[in-house]
Amino acid sequence: MNMLHSDAKTHLQDCFSDNIRTINLEVISEIQNDVDYYDTVSLVFLLYEVPDTALQRLIVFQRVHKDSNMNLLYDWALNAQARPTWRYEFLEALTICRLYHIIKKLGFDVASVKERYMPDNINVCIYINPMKKALYKFCENVIVNILVRLKKSLLTYDIDTSEHESCELICLELISQKFITLNKNNFVVENKQCHVEKLVRIVENIPGLKKVAEDLQIIANKINNDSNFSSPQIMSTPICSTTPNDDSKAKLKEDKYDESFCDIFQRLNELQKEDIPIMNLKSDTKNLTKDAYPIINTRRIGVCCIINQEEFHPSKDSIENNFRTPMLENRLGSTKDQQSLEQLMTSLNFKIKSCRNLNHREMFKFIREVINNDVRPDDSIFMLCILSHGVRGHVYAADSVKVKVEDIQKLLDSDDASNLHGKPKILILQACQVDEHRSMPHLVADGPKTNYFLRKSDFLIYWATAPEYEAYRDEQKGSIFIQILCYTIGKKAQQEHLKVKLYSARVLWYKIMQNLRSFSNIFRAQAVPILHCSVASKHIDYSLVPKINEAELTEQFVRGGGPGGSAVNKNANCVVLTHNPTGTVIKCHISRCQDDNRKLAREMLIAKLDEVLNGDNSVAAQKKRLQGEKLKKNEYKRKKMAKLKEEWKKREGLV
Question: Between 3.30.420.40, 1.10.150.320, 3.40.50.1460, 3.40.190.10, what CATH number should domain 261-319+326-436+455-533 receive?
Fold first, then answer.
């Protein structure tokens, strides 16, 4: 049996030797007509020794291949025929590209050629540069959406590949610009170092290509460490071949959900509502005009800025500045959320400013431009909606860089955004808040004086989910949180006046929570949105506080009385301040320091004039009213809790 096997093998080798001699320039010229554009690009990538030459000819071929008879394979053979192995190189390249119909047409046995060159095993290399074979396998796994990500990632390294239609052209561009370096051809022994680390770091951050990145690094390490790896021989250690990425993962399974959002909303409306009147959720409705944020212009409520991060790519900043960058999938269905928000906010008389797929620098630039160019003095509300991936306290930009939500708040609070000071700012964040186990600083702000602008005030932040939880999204219909938010606000806006929409933010939030809780029970998915609110739900109006003019004041310094020893009778620390237009007199001897008493006397005079001139609308009256409402609310809670305890005792038979 061994003799029969040996004879058969010898016969195949003889046939192989005879057929290889039939490959000549004329045959190569005819083969070009049987190979399509993309296979031609792959063959040129594998065969041409000088990357710059291959790149320039392929760029021209890319533009004229439909109207020209440009024969790149013949040009290669014309220059390579001086080498004794050029026919074997060509045959190996055909095998790697799986052009078996060409191999069969040349008279070869396809099975024996595949056994000889093993096209699926990147560790098998005879005449073709092993790194080029590994790069070709990488190109096989790059589908259209991954190619777009790769181009965007390389752009962050100042490498523009936007005009290249195939991955092989991009690889040649990277070789030409020394972004990756290959060893010389198989017959040159010097300068055999291969460096693909930068490309590997990009590829490993693209979903679905982690195994390909590992294979590229393995081949590079073998070339650099094994002096015999790139010499003409067959390696004996095969590894599993990489298979093309299955694009079907990006498609939504038709049977994933069998209900539309309309059906879900209909079911939510049929569910039993919580039996709590709206009056119990609002602390006050009688003085709404004093405590709510006013709508200045009903024809234009404000500006709604929408940033939709749908397509992600690794970048130089995300790779080099973060010790572990996650692979971010594209957010299919996010366009539906953007359309829903635009439709809702347009109906509420907001000016819409939308943008998609911004890197971290473009995000801040876009927000800053909207604030400076589109926000007007008569705008009542500023709304910022960010649809993206996220981790705790951060959202991701399109270049996979984390952006702190706190930094966005600082931008909206900065002096550059002074036209937003005192106006409500609503942030809607559709992003996960998975905990990265990093300590988050706890910031405590001191209470400034009333005539200063309070940082981080007037903010209403809607998070799609709480920390350590994920946010869910239907890849065809949009995000659960955004769709329910738009539905709830749109329905509520039809029932209430524009003035109370922001004032009723917490009431809306309870409604959204109720709907999401019901939604979670339907789909068995944990959805735990949270609300950060620093808007003045009980707003104290300081606009009527009078301002004093120093020219209208008469100031005297007299000796005080009371405790303090003999110094009280010797020093004129007491300040007597008279407001000439109204005749109001203030005497202040709170401190032993005359300068402190002067400042305190002016504050006391302003408070006194505010009470005299504004009455029930004065700051003191408003604070007193709010304190009374707080006491009533606490008393209501105490009575309700006592009632619940009493009912529980009766049910348990403890009474």
Answer: 3.40.50.1460
